[in-house]
Amino acid sequence: MAGIELQRQLESAAYVLGGETYDAPAQLVGDYLADNSSNNLGKVEPSYKPGVKLTDMTKILPDYCREAIQEAIPAFNRKIRGFALKDAMLTGVETRTSSPVSIKRNADYQSVNTKGLYPAGEGAGYAGGIMSAAIDGIRIAEAMALAINEEHQ
């Protein structure tokens, strides 16, 4: 239950830093790495709706998380040059977890007990993020197309 408590603490801290308006706290990557509060946007426009409030994101995370992220960003930038642009946005916090549920499906991607139901993506237990959910969705679409094609032959 400690993980759920940490989740609640992070969400509460983010709500407060976001101005208690459901804007998300945000910080420029360069400022985050230098432990400076962000006051102005750079070239990168935030995409989060309803909006963001520039702040110091280091105030939200426990030290071990902050330090790990401050080490990881430059390391990732060495692998993908340009990842750590100084005016890129960090927006947070993302605290949701993957579904603990798994809806069983067979080799043709249909539910084992409900023909015509194609459990897919994170909510069905077949993905852990947006990219793997997209790939699973492609697999499901292909399986459905094959099933429809077989019905019409």
Give the strand order of the largest sheet, numbering strands 1, 2, ... along the chain.
2-1-3
Largest sheet: 3 strands, mixed
Question: On the 0-100 scale, what is the average pLDDT?
Answer: 90
Distance between the termini: 53 Å
Total beta strand runs: 3
**Shape descriptor:** elongated
Structural class: mainly alpha
Helix-strand sequence: HEHEHEH
Q: In what range is the share of β-strand residues?
A: 5-15%
| Helix-residue proportion | 25-40%
Q: Rounded to an integer, what's the Rg over CA atoms?
A: 21 Å
Would you identify the regions where 5 or more consecutive residues have pLDDT less than 50?
none
Tally of separate helices: 4
Number of domains: 2
Structural description of this entry:
- This protein is mostly helical and 153 residues long.
- It folds into 2 domains: 2-91, no CATH class; 99-153, no CATH class.
- It is 39% helix and 7% strand.
- The protein contains 4 helices and 3 strands, in the order αβαβαβα.
- It has helices at residues 2-17, 29-33, 63-79, 130-151; strands at residues 24-28, 52-54, 89-91.
- A 3-stranded mixed β-sheet has the order 2-1-3.
- α2 (29-33) links the parallel β1 and β2.
- The longest helix has 22 residues, at 130-151.
- The model has no long low-confidence stretch (mean pLDDT 90).
Concise account of the structure shown:
This protein is mainly alpha-helical.
